Amino acid sequence: MKQPPKPNVLAFQELLDKAKVPKISVVNEIDDMGPPANFQFINENIYTKGVPKMSTDFLVGCECTDGCSPKTAKNCTCIANMDSLPYRRGKLQLQPGQAIYECNSLCKCGPDCSNRVVQKGRTIELQIVKTQHKGWGVRTMEPIPKGTFVEEYAGEIITNEEAEKRGQAYDACGLTYLFDLDFECGAESDCDFTIDAYRYGNVSHFFNHSCDPNLRVYPVFVDHWNLKMHRLAFFATKDIPRFTELTFDYAGASVVYDELGSPIPILPHIDQRDKVINKVKCYCGAANCRDYVHL
């Protein structure tokens, strides 16, 4: 006989009901743990004190009245920022390290334009599941083809100064949900803004690390082109079977890619005592596991 959901799972599911469709379910067959304390589910980023809301005053829309396509690419102001159309039949085809410039509210191409993907939101049904060693994780409830947009990383957009303060507190706990908006400044410089998904976030809050991930993050611009304030979107790097856990590499900015898109890991930061800072045991189980996650 099927057992009824645990009270803590029901509380978690109620929290997830705030998500836009398709639905997000939750399963816990490990213990009685419920949702993270004080966590609030959101569908869009929250602008905090000191973070300017983006203006469309200098936004330019394309003139592709019949939709953006290879035929219009040469004259399309949106595609001009990229080497080619970012999507082919709805699937990403850009190399790692490139940004996506989607058509915006001023474009004449219409809502069905092939260059509108991330802005339409998640289309995959997902499930949050309790794991044996990694806390909560997320798995897909349907097959995901390579290049498919999965979810946007959402949270509070905070200043670099606020990120430094919060980062010290998170370091003491051995965790972090800070994701730098560093497309313009790169991994070696301080960026102006960061997304913090610790207290406010969507399902991506629960994505776990893997040394052999099936998701990769790309910077995305939609209704403004301020390079310091982009969105973060997860895309599938391979065909992902149903019920597979969704993961990305927490090293993030600490990994660069060669011209073929293969990862070239960079050694983590070492302090004066030759000890790795924020070294956490990795349980990803990948054949190429680095044994530790460097937060």
UniProtKB/TrEMBL annotation:
It is found in: Chromosome; Nucleus. Zn(2+) 1 binds at C62, C64, C68. Its EC number is 2.1.1.355. This is Histone-lysine N-methyltransferase. Residues 60-121 form the Pre-SET domain. InterPro entries: H3-K9_MeTrfase_SUV39H1/2-like (IPR011381), H3K9_Histone-Lys_N-MTase (IPR050973), Post-SET_dom (IPR003616), Pre-SET_dom (IPR007728), SET_dom (IPR001214), SET_dom_sf (IPR046341). Zn(2+) 3 binds at C103, C109, C113. Belongs to the class V-like SAM-binding methyltransferase superfamily. Histone-lysine methyltransferase family. Suvar3-9 subfamily. CDD domains: SET_SUV39H. Zn(2+) 4 binds at C211, C282, C284, C289. It comes from Basidiobolus meristosporus CBS 931.73. Its main location: nucleus. Residues 124-251 form the SET domain.
